[in-house]
């Protein structure tokens, strides 16, 4: 029985982890559940799964008598086999660090942990012997192509991107799109924040930065290509010219379940039927029309606290776009202003990253609302 501490249990990914546990109750159980604000959602899950401990950052859930409410991330990982980090945004970093420092096996679905705090997380992983398994479909694909390992000799990594709902739009047309338009992702069903990030291609920039830390390589060895069908989830190139790819329908159940069982596999998704799919298409990623992607790479090259500034400003900008306060192109403008206006700190301690996150959000709100 694999005991899971699920962080972000009430979000989109968390709900799919719960579905996996329901599908295989003889294989998985929850030792801990945690969420940010959804106390009622946590209460319902606690009644269903009866974990030993639970945590809600904001709110007071009604928990069964057998479930202890704890107050710190560290207490969530005392008795688990897998720490599944599905919390969204910068907030997930402290949970990832706590799990790494506890030496746990980590199923990582929070990309901001590595985008903002990659150096801190990977140092903790090395020092404690924690195991880190990616959940993002693109990074799971690379992990699988490397034989369910993060180590391996390769010449290049190529991430695939659907291109989002606005791939064919001109710059003028992009100024007119709405939040409702952005949330219509052509191939994936995801939460609002990541769906907008996929529309701006900021999410793909994040994934490039993630790959740098996960596979201990240089940004120059990581690329991205548009693949509208979302069947090929990423490719690993080798010195002899070979390329290995992982293919499958766009379904997060596979990388979620594999992160819990790797290298073992269990029945999960519909097998891929290539004849049913027909042609697959690939094309250059149009960076010139999606500046968020380029801003992410620039922040990654600069290092230090720049990725935390990128992310903090990005979270505020997406929130403003979703509530109708700014246009789609102004997401990139908000991020660019924060990166240009906030001094970079070389030493990226957690305290420095947290301060950079706070300053980025403050500057972004001032840029958007003028106060």
How would you describe this protein?
It is a single chain. The protein has helices at 12-23, 39-49, 92-101, 112-128, 137-145, 171-174, 179-182, 192-200, 202-214, 253-261, 274-277, 291-302, 306-322, 329-341, 350-369; strands spanning 2-7, 28-35, 53-56, 68-69, 82-85, 105-108, 131-134, 156-161, 222-226, 232-237, 243-247, 283-284. 49% of the residues are buried. The termini are far apart. The protein has a 7-stranded parallel beta sheet with strand order 4-3-2-1-5-6-7, sandwiched between helices. Strands 11-10-8-9-12 form a 5-stranded mixed beta sheet, with helices on one face. It has 371 residues and is α/β, with parallel strands linked by helices. It is globular. Strand 2 (28-35), helix 2 (39-49) and strand 3 (53-56) form a beta-alpha-beta unit. It is built from 15 helices and 12 strands.
What is the topological layout?
Layout: E1 2-7, H1 12-23, E2 28-35, H2 39-49, E3 53-56, E4 68-69, E5 82-85, H3 92-101, E6 105-108, H4 112-128, E7 131-134, H5 137-145, E8 156-161, H6 171-174, H7 179-182, H8 192-200, H9 202-214, E9 222-226, E10 232-237, E11 243-247, H10 253-261, H11 274-277, E12 283-284, H12 291-302, H13 306-322, H14 329-341, H15 350-369
Helix pairs in contact: 3-4, 4-9, 4-13, 8-13, 9-12, 12-13, 12-14, 13-14, 13-15, 14-15
